[in-house]
User: Fold these one by one.
Assistant:
Number 1:
Amino acid sequence: MSQKRVLVTGAGGFIGHHLVTFLKQRGYWVRGVDLKAPEFGTTEADEFEILDLRRWADCLQATRGMDQVYALAADMGGMGFISANHTQILHNNILINTHTLEAARLNGVSRYLYSSSACIYPEYRQTDAEVTPLKEEDAYPAQPQDAYGWEKLITEKLCHYYSAEHAIETRVVRFHNIFGQLGTWDGGREKAPAALCRKIAQAKLTGNHEIEIWGDGEQTRSFCFIDDCLEGIYRLMQSDYAEPLNLGQDRLVTINELADIIADAAGISVSRKHIPGPQGVRGRNSDNTRLREELGWEPQISLEEGLGRTYRWIEEQLRARHAQEASAAPVAEPAAVG
Ligand code: NAD
């Protein structure tokens, strides 16, 4: 059998960069596409093209000669970014996804996996920190909190109709807060686990053990480590399941608890200063019943283990930055002796 040729869009981003490595290890020929090369480490893709997938011609180029597409490219970030950039997010992601999917169809791609999000779930089901885990069918009647979630829902539907009306099979995964090494950890697009790792590493390195948390920190989420995410996406791509599927952990923790687990990994204790900031919905958890049924599998890596690995990587990044800043600092002029 000839080697399968696979496109990963968003291959310069967090999940995409990891996925390229994962697919290479499994013997695929991989093309990566993104607006930028990966920020942390070099891609293992056989071919990496810098393209803007909002543009139709770039989508045609990206999908040429491919058997499968993992569509991960998106203009996105953590709550701070998502709650403040609705127009940009909706505009850019609609262009990216409608163009990539149609180009894939025209180029004869047989299977296409779209990365949706837990952000599609309606706000009215997530008003309580002790939230009932969300089943896939809870998506409707629709009322996502942000434009980011609305775009994801529309593209889920687009995938459904392409599958029904054309010779392209689609798979749709709804990620629940994926975290790990090699992800954005500062600059405004980082998500809660990375932001907290950075704040706690900063506390450890400076000796000031007070960290800021948006809101009262009692909002709840589940968090899934990147290695489980990769295994889950891969299994879904191989499976026959064509409807949207949750992919996440189902252990609910508060943001305060998340901070405590990270502080343990850092080996320090921190005091929390609660400040106003975007918090998203009050509570969100994944119901993994269908995931278990369809894939015969569910995420395996504990939050403590995943956060420990992520924390250590972010602390290294911060140490390297501090060292660089120290060596770039201007050397003080020697005092004049008269
Ligand atoms: P990421 O921001 O690290 O990666 C997305 C990549 O898409 C970036 O490298 C970005 O440069 C690229 N991109 C943006 N606009 C582009 C364009 N016009 N053309 C080409 N590339 C473009 O995000 P991630 O965490 O790796 O997420 C991957 C996918 O998973 C996204 O679709 C995201 O919405 C979805 N998702 C992620 C999470 C999570 O917790 N990380 C949760 C839910 C859904």
Number 2:
Amino acid sequence: MEVSIIGSGYVGLITGISLAELGHEVTFIDLDEEKIGDINSGKPPIFEKGLEELMKKTKGRYKATTNYRAITETDTTFICVGTPSKEDGSIDLTFIKSAATEIGNALKEKDKFHVIVVKSTVVPGTTEEVVKPIIEKESGKEAFKDFGLAMNPEFLREGNAVEDFFNPDRIVIGVKDEKTKEIMEKFYFPFKCPKLITDIKTAEMIKYASNAFLATKISFANEIGNICKKLGIDAYDVFKGVGLDHRINPSFFRSGIGFGGSCFPKDVKALIAKAEELGENPKLLKAVIDVNERQPLKLIELLKKHITNLEGKTIGILGLAFKPDTDDIRESRAIPIVKSLLEEGAKVIAYDPKAMDNFRELFPQLIYAESAEKVLEKSDAVLIVTEWEEFKNLDYNGHVVVDGRRIEKAKRDARIYEGVCW
Ligand code: NAD
């Protein structure tokens, strides 16, 4: 099929290139000319395992443009633009609205049935109450008759996104009309995982409930982990024992310094805001965020057990990305940690294999080291913030290490070692 993708970030690019791999012809549309240039020259504008190879392999089956008229040459359009948080935590639909406006405009000139798929994470009600009326108004056409509308949430994990696209746990498709349902089923025919067809609002909610649950699992592990730390208990052993209960499941169940990234924090906050708009008080979700905001600062608290006054001290940071195997620093736990160190007058020397360029834009005043070894060499104490593979084999001998991610070698070899919840 001929597919257009509006928004060529993590989700749009992975979706589009993977659809090209499945044999579809894909056109990426984005506002960012640099991204468009990169994609057209087969270069991934983001770092994601396996993406560069896949872009090489599928070259010729995708192209990129800033011109929305390209929509009319396709049968299906996936909306993959960002849905950030507003100041108050509620969802910012600016990009969704402008994408819907452009799609509506383009569809004015198209006679054939066209399917629009919302893949961005949007609070329940958005597809039918915001996207649909905008497209109808701009195009002069009627939804579910002249054009189809589906909501197809994305569950990929950054760092593992290509692998996740081809091996999903499940596919959720929210639809209303039969024709759109058939087209969506055709797209996902090659996948053998469970496929759940729901109404549009339910599909939107499944995404939020999933992320809220995973975020809750982490904040729960951190709260128990903080109690363990005070009791001299290793929270890792505790959660190994707890996770073996098949009703609980061991994955995604570790203590540390909390969750970051472009999804969990913003999605939980957006769900809280939506709940409050509806007159609900989502106490549990608020506590999940509260625990998560305090957790990274535990590293500073533990550091100060060993270096009481941080003024003028050089503190090393290992890892800036919000998790390993990505260059994404959105809501990275490194941000509040670095802020707090700078406020205390410390000098910060940092290293990350992929995320230093992005971090430098936020914190140009740090010293960015060429290697993890240099960080160890030059600092009075080191904080482990992201569990990159290469940090598992460093020589921590003789160093003061405060570990937020459980690097066994550091635990074994450091001169002074503090684990956040162990
Ligand atoms: P992103 O910020 O990486 O990419 C969004 C892209 O959309 C940018 O390239 C931007 O230039 C472009 N854009 C914005 N407005 C546009 C417009 N009107 N027309 C064309 N392009 C436009 O975002 P992302 O991380 O890919 O996330 C996209 C959506 O997917 C969000 O709703 C997010 O919550 C959801 N999601 C993200 C992930 C993830 O791991 N990143 C996983 C699942 C779901």
